[in-house]
Write a structure and sequence with these properties.
There is one protein chain. The protein has 3 helices and no strands. The protein has 76 residues and is mainly alpha-helical. The protein has a domain of 40 residues. The mean pLDDT is 89. This is Type II toxin-antitoxin system VapB family antitoxin. Pfam families: VapB_antitoxin.
């Protein structure tokens, strides 16, 4: 889609440097992709709200003993 917009020259230069793009079009597209990716990540994190683990991690860690001693140290 062809769009004509006024963009601050200094901001565009910073965007091109930050994205490593050689053209204004590529810099804008890279920035837009990044904005969309961040938005999708935030939505995914928001969707995870309410999921969680309930329990006592300390009790869980102390509630199990291995059948085999896998220690890396030699026991003499």
């Amino acid at each position: 889609m062809r769009t004509n917009i006024d963009i601050d020259d200094k901001l565009m230069a910073k965007a091109m440097k930050a994205t490593g793009q050689q053209t204004k079009k590529a810099a804008v597209e890279a920035a837009l992709r990044k904005v969309v990716a961040i938005s999708e990540q935030m939505a995914a994190l928001e969707a995870l709200k309410g999921f969680g683990w309930e329990g006592d991690l300390d009790a869980m860690r102390n509630d199990w003993t291995p059948e085999v001693d896998w220690a890396l140290e030699d026991k003499k």
